[in-house]
Amino acid sequence: MWVLINYKQMKNYLFALTAMLLMLACQSQRKPLGLTEEEHDYMLKKAKESLVFVEGGTFTMGDVGKTYPSGYNRPFFDDPSSFPLHEVTLDSYYMQKYEITYGEFDLFTKAVGIDSIYSQFIGLNFRGPDGTATGMNWYEAQEYCEWLGDLVGVPMSLPTDAQWEYAARSRGQAVANATDDGTIDGGRNYYGKGVDIPKRETPSGYFPPNPLGLYDMSGGVGEWIFDYWYPFTEDPVTNPTCTDSTYHSNRITRGFPGPSGSIYPRTDNRKPTNRGSGVGMRCVANVTKDTIR
User: Fold this and answer.
1) Which member of 31, 39, 123, 264 has the greatest number of CB atoms within 10 A?
2) Could you tell me what percent of the chain has a pLDDT over 70?
3) Do the beta carbons of residue 76 and residue 45 sit within 8 Å?
4) Taking a C-beta distance cutoff of 8 angstroms, is the pair 217, 255 a contact?
5) CB-side exposure of 117: number of CA atoms within 13 Å?
6) What's residue 199's pLDDT?
7) How far apart are CA 227 and CA 241, in angstroms?
């Protein structure tokens, strides 16, 4: 009896020890270095300056298209993922006017102790501190927003699908593109003749912003969205978000550049664990006006 009891005790002890060692091994992969006071102040100042207030409201989500005097409506892009049209009501929030840069994301990876993205390319033109950061996976992107929110003192996250589209369309306007006038004018407000900088090396904010003051939602990089991909329905919704992977295990990405510059396609082909996928990001602060000072 004595031997049996001690065998069980030893077995439980070894199990607990193994679990503890595994936990310590996982933690040891992260070596948080923290930020200097100067780096902290820089990130805090830049974060606050980058946030644009987006007044909430009700809009028709999806590819609303252009309606002609005859009454005929022609979708802007006609992507199946942007139908059916449906009414969405959103609370107010703030959104970062620029996509996150490598300089900003490098400070985050340093602070929390994870490997920097595309570190093998540091020193190349596109991987400079002012270049638009891509390559983080969804989990890292969301953690960045939460970390930034801790610095600012407000809850921050990746934008929901509805928040992203509402802001890209300057509070739900019926426009094809998130440019200064809602259209593509190559060389002036989008890539085209006269733009000599390669797309991959174009700095954030190179082209004019949309009327809301947000840059590169057309013509930037694809951006991570908080939601899992889900199909639209015709039902009106308020502050919609999808945290259930029933429909799809991948998260939504929006805003990939292309000839049309369309803001309507909702891409579902990026796994949330995919590091190096070419997707970038920006954050939102889910607070009311004048909360951020």
Assistant:
1) 264
2) 87
3) no
4) yes
5) 31
6) 67
7) 6
Helix axes 102-112, 138-152, angle to 10 degrees: 80
Structure tokens at 57: 């409201």
* Residue whose C-alpha is closest to residue 239's, from 63, 50, 87, 126: 87
For the chain, what's the residue count? 293
The pLDDT tens digits of the residues spanning 177-201 come to: 999 999 999 889 888 776 777 666 6
Strand partners, 61: 86
Q: Give SS3 for 176.
A: coil
6, with CB counted inside 10 A (0-12, 13-18, 19+), is exposed
The single-letter code of the amino acid at 31 is K
Pairing of strands 86-90, 237-238: parallel
Contacts of 68 (CB under 8 A, 6+ apart): 74
Burial-class residue 150 by CB neighbours within 10 Å (0-12, 13-18, 19+): exposed
Q: What is the DSSP letter of 186?
A: B
pLDDT tens-digit readout, 229-254: 999 999 999 999 999 998 899 999 99
* Nearest one of 73, 60, 77, 85 to 232, comparing CA atoms: 85
CB atoms within 10 A of CB 237: 15
Sign (positive/negative) of CA torsion 248, 162, 288, 222? Answer: positive
* Residue 10 Cα to chain centre, angstroms: 49
Here the tokens at position 259 are 């000839």
**Cβ neighbours of 246 (radius 10 Å):** 8
> Which is higher by pLDDT, 28 or 266?
266
pLDDT for residue 12: 42
Residue 254 and residue 220 in contact, taking contact as beta carbons nearer than 8 Å: no
